[in-house]
Amino acid sequence: MRIVQKFGGTSVGSLERIRKTADIVESSLQEGDEIIVVVSAMSGETNRLINMAREMDANAQPREVDALVATGEQVTAALLAIELRRRGIKACSFSGAQAGFQTRGNHAKARISNIESRHLTKRLKQGDVPVVAGFQGVDESGNITTLGRGGSDTSAVALAIAIKADRCDIYTDVDGIYSTDPRIVSNASKIDRISYEEMLEFASLGAKVLQTRSVELAMRYKMPIHLRSSFEPVEGTLVMEEDETMERETITGVAYNRDEAKVTILGIPDHPGIAANVFGPVAHAEINVDVIVQNVSEKGFTDITFTVPRSDYAATIALLETTREKMQARDVLGDNTVAKVSIIGVGMRSHTGVARKMFEVLAKESINIQMITTSEIKVTVVIEEQYVDQAVQSLHREFGLDQPET
Amino acid sequence: MRIVQKFGGTSVGSLERIRKTADIVESSLQEGDEIIVVVSAMSGETNRLINMAREMDANAQPREVDALVATGEQVTAALLAIELRRRGIKACSFSGAQAGFQTRGNHAKARISNIESRHLTKRLKQGDVPVVAGFQGVDESGNITTLGRGGSDTSAVALAIAIKADRCDIYTDVDGIYSTDPRIVSNASKIDRISYEEMLEFASLGAKVLQTRSVELAMRYKMPIHLRSSFEPVEGTLVMEEDETMERETITGVAYNRDEAKVTILGIPDHPGIAANVFGPVAHAEINVDVIVQNVSEKGFTDITFTVPRSDYAATIALLETTREKMQARDVLGDNTVAKVSIIGVGMRSHTGVARKMFEVLAKESINIQMITTSEIKVTVVIEEQYVDQAVQSLHREFGLDQPET
Questions:
Q1: B74 reaches A (C-beta below 8 A)
Q2: Listed residue (B338, B274, B263) closest to B300, CA to CA
Q3: Distance, CA of A156 to CA of B227 (rounded, Å)
Q4: Does the A2-173 domain belong in CATH 3.40.1160.10?
Q5: In 3D, which of A183, A175, A98, A129 has the Cα closest to residue A4?
Q6: Which of B23, B55, B82, B117 to mutate to test the interface with A (most CBs of A within 10 A)?
Q7: What is the pLDDT, as a whole number, of residue A130?
Q8: Chain A residue closest to B66 (CA)?
Q9: Does A108 touch chain B (CB under 8 A)?
Q10: Superfamily of domain B254-398
Q11: Which partner from A190, A312, B39, B189 sits 20 to 30 angstroms from B160, CA to CA?
Q12: How far apart are CA B90 and CA B7, in angstroms?
């Protein structure tokens, strides 16, 4: 099999960890697999570099910050190649530019536009093991770019697609996706297989193990991702196309995100284009709006409520104060102590009454639901942050996800 | 004027030092000069990276060590560009590859074959200030290469030639070339102007302020080098074509090198090809032979004595022991406590008796001369290391180089 193996920051966080990573690569090669490695910077290194840039200039130019930060992954790639060579493996390190990663868009948030992979493919055919610096590429003008935090996952998946790999293995410090956060529910269970759609819902809800863009990309090209631990040699979670081999529980997991704030605009004249008036300036300010709910409240007037990340709360409120007059809104209210709780599962498609059951469970716990939004495979509610643990625990139990006590 | 400014490791050794470097660049721009900057890695950084590589594998593959080490200069270039941008200067960092440095030859010892400088020239015309990572390039296969220790000087001079600069300013932690080592002769005097040929003799004798290759390159293309301090705003030493404006003292300076060892091969049959038999294997082992003296000692037999760096002494002796039989030599002797002392000066060309005077001075000091070698502008003697200070002091004084006491 041809496999892209991606190792995150903690998996290459020290020379000792890089040696362990080399163990994994070596044993995969011994099994006859063709391996391309993608690495992150050693944990802490990206922050060290960014802090130097900030100490120099709090508003350091993004082009230069990218050039600076990109060295982090190059260092890891070279060190891992050195260790593999020591073992007699024909490894070669490549920067993103050398590996053919072409990007477009802004510095620090670039997107991969193309991977000119002929060079790497040639190396693979010669029996070499390319070790590629993740998270980076070059734009059409030859400037070094980075893909934004977590972008190494996307590098790995994009590369796997470009070189027609059979699978992309993403090694990290967790051993898979769990039915919910084990810190909240001690008998949460590891999910063996999960569909891309479900993984996307988990990722967008703050399960930080896989970058959303990498999952979207894998889904589009049907590239299986094996999410696994570089610390323990156990099977992880396989992210793949939904198929009949997947267990069809009603729901797959319960997710939550505490990083939520809620903003309500009261009494806007209800006519076409009002949403554009509200969300145009918000989008322009690069604030990510998540859940949006609109109700007709009085004759000819409407209320709009939406959630944003807490870090954007103050900016959002300030922005809406300046646009309130133009929106002809009566008032702007906010609350930055809310959280989202979601149940996720492709099983919902064939089971009825899942949302109703969720509301019943929360009602029984006397947890007030402030907003509701649903998708085909997810039901999300916004609640007071203080009830998150209680909500997650009761939902996990009532939907039958608790592992039997052993 | 169009000037390449090169800053060495100590000149960019901390964020504070990088700010001082930005001061120098900024004031040059204010004088209306067009500036391209070349930087070394922050002092200590190259060693930090090499130590990581060695800790991984004492014989780490050179290709990977180059890729690793090259990040050091990239970091400095980005940080300096960030600081210049903060001051409103349109600076842009470039890796060696981005700046168009093409190399050939071995990793860690690559030579610049070409600089594809159109990109940088275009930037200059736009009023940008390119900040280039020195010491590095890419070979014909796209591998990152480094030029070897001190290679940033060569990067700077080569770039100055490629972009037709008027001058190459090399900023370092000394403020110029002195008539001898001020640690040995307290009233040594700074040399205002020195010819390339003299500078080469100083450099090859261990004056580590300028890499020999950079001076050779500057000489071939008549590129003036201003060697100066980034710590003190004083004039340094201008290295340039010999011309009538230079003072014509008999000698320009006294240099020495303690890092010498002497090897003598006794009683080799004296026939053509013997030197090749001796020095072929030595060169093959990449040992740099310096002074060579050959005498006819007995009828049909000859002795050969040569010097090598002390670090190569043991290897040289061991090598000659294995080839002694083939050379039909009677014996191999060695001494690793010798040193070289040289007097240097273009003035020798028009002054007679310079060598004789040197021998007289040393004789008066009762210092025994073991080997002598001369060039058009240099006389070198090999003596016991313990007499170096005494020899340098007396020569400096007797050739009238001591500064008048103030």
A1: yes
A2: B274
A3: 47
A4: yes
A5: A129
A6: B82
A7: 98
A8: A78
A9: no
A10: VC0802-like (3.30.2130.10)
A11: B189
A12: 19
